């Protein structure tokens, strides 16, 4: 039996064990996990320091290293996400619909667990806890495969969770970490159709494309964020400046950071120098600009076609000047990764048209794309942000980790 087959067999058993847990029991166990995470802060920081040191040795940029970093505040934030999941309504057992058919059969459709979820993700160790809490609340077992750059942090986090579960009398195999970070083992996980019901990749475009190509297990795409902000001719330019700077520089290494700026030609001459000056006072941005924008910016570089489709995850932003709202919408729809898009405008008709016609999971009016987050949306934690349209779209919370089952009760009916 291979390594992944062993983990899969253990996960299937654990998933069956979970079916007997009530909502109150699950919430109590999640509360126990939050307390253990906070109490083990010193251990978690020690193990995380090993990953940070390795990142430095490997020459990983500070922006990307920040995705790895745990602090006491971030650990408390991770624990708070688990607390929120515990406080959320449990979808398992919820009746989607119920009716009596013409044969007198009483038919009820209820939410049920998926079974075993696998997740392949990069860099951010908080994902381990977020994914566990959502899976556990929905009675799913989960197999986690993080990147080698966060292996020590992930080992520590999963170990703390498993110990808390064991102390609470629950099979700790409801959460397991793939500690072998080789590509071969990852591919084994992608093909574990006998054990895994759903695979969620969370990371960069290369990871997600690899999983899509090689997985035999059903996949939900998440994460890649080529997010645009369109500054309309009727925008409040001070508001637009604040929104763009927040969306680009507050945390550039995350998928809801803005990568592309689209500007109406009627305000470009005033807005672009204003934005550049404001950015230089906080954090300079490398603007990769089209011909019109390049002429208005002091330190821009010429844009390439590839730049328009790139998730930079850095202080870099492509810039396109357009003639009207329709051109802006068409441009965004050409290059969007279907994650999050925004318009800044005081024109309600333009705002409504942009929201209706832009094809993305989250479409904002006069707000930063940085808000696309399960925690912010009130979902507790999130297991990812789906950029596809089947089953789940946008931040994936509890309901996204459920299926449904029909319960049929009769009184001796047979089909003639």
TrEMBL record:
Residues 35-283, 316-378 form the Aldehyde dehydrogenase domain. GO terms for cellular component: cytoplasm. Pathway: Amino-acid biosynthesis; L-proline biosynthesis; L-glutamate 5-semialdehyde from L-glutamate: step 2/2. Its main location: cytoplasm. GO terms for molecular function: glutamate-5-semialdehyde dehydrogenase activity; NADP binding. The keyword Hydrolase does not apply. Keywords: Amino-acid biosynthesis, Cytoplasm, NADP, Oxidoreductase, Proline biosynthesis. It is found in: Cytoplasm. It holds the Pfam family Aldedh. InterPro entries: Ald_DH/histidinol_DH (IPR016161), Ald_DH_C (IPR016163), Ald_DH_N (IPR016162), Aldehyde_DH_dom (IPR015590), Glu-5-SA_DH (IPR012134), GPR_dom (IPR000965). It is an enzyme of class 1 (oxidoreductase). One of its GO terms (biological process) is L-proline biosynthetic process. It catalyses: L-glutamate 5-semialdehyde + phosphate + NADP(+) = L-glutamyl 5-phosphate + NADPH + H(+). It comes from the Bacteria. Its EC number is 1.2.1.41. Catalyzes the NADPH-dependent reduction of L-glutamate 5-phosphate into L-glutamate 5-semialdehyde and phosphate. The product spontaneously undergoes cyclization to form 1-pyrroline-5-carboxylate. HAMAP family: ProA. Belongs to the gamma-glutamyl phosphate reductase family. PANTHER family: DELTA-1-PYRROLINE-5-CARBOXYLATE SYNTHASE, GLUTAMATE SEMIALDEHYDE DEHYDROGENASE. This is Gamma-glutamyl phosphate reductase. The gene is proA.
């Amino acid at each position: 039996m291979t390594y992944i087959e062993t983990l899969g067999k253990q996960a299937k058993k654990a998933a069956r064990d979970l079916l007997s847990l009530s909502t109150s029991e699950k919430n109590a166990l999640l509360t126990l996990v939050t307390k253990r995470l906070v109490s083990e802060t010193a251990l978690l920081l020690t193990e995380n320091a090993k990953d940070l040191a390795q990142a430095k040795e490997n020459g990983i940029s500070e922006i990307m290293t920040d995705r790895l970093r745990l602090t006491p505040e971030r650990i408390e934030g991770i624990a708070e996400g688990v607390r929120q999941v515990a406080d959320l309504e449990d979808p398992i057992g919820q009746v989607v619909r119920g009716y009596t058919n013409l044969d007198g059969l009483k038919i009820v459709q209820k939410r049920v667990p998926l079974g075993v979820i696998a997740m392949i993700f990069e860099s951010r160790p908080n994902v381990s806890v977020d994914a566990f809490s959502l899976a556990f609340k929905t009675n799913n077992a989960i197999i986690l495969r993080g990147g080698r750059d966060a292996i020590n942090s992930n080992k520590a986090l999963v170990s703390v969770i498993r110990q808390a579960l064991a102390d609470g009398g629950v099979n700790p195999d409801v959460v397991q970490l793939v500690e072998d970070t080789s590509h071969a083992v990852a591919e084994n996980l992608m093909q574990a159709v006998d054990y895994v019901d759903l695979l969620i990749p969370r990371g960069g475009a290369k990871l997600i494309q690899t999983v899509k190509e090689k997985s035999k297990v059903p996949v939900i795409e998440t994460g890649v964020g080529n997010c645009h902000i369109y500054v309309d001719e009727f925008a409040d330019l001070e508001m637009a400046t604040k929104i763009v700077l927040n969306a680009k520089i507050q945390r550039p290494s995350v998928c809801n950071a803005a990568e592309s700026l689209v500007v109406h030609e009627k305000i470009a001459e005033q807005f672009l120098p204003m934005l550049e000056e404001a950015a230089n006072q906080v954090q300079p941005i490398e603007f990769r600009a089209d011909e019109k924008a390049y002429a208005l910016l002091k330190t821009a570089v010429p844009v390439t076609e590839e730049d328009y489709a790139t998730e930079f995850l850095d202080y870099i932003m492509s810039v396109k000047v357009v003639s009207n709202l329709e051109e802006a919408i068409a441009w965004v729809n050409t290059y969007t990764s279907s994650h999050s898009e925004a318009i800044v405008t005081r024109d309600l008709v333009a705002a409504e048209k942009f929201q209706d016609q832009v094809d993305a999971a989250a479409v904002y009016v006069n707000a930063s794309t940085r808000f696309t987050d399960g925690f912010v949306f009130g979902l507790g934690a999130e297991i990812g942000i789906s950029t596809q349209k089947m089953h789940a779209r946008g931040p994936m919370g509890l309901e996204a980790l459920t299926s449904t089952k029909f319960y049929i009760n009769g009184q001796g009916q047979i089909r003639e």
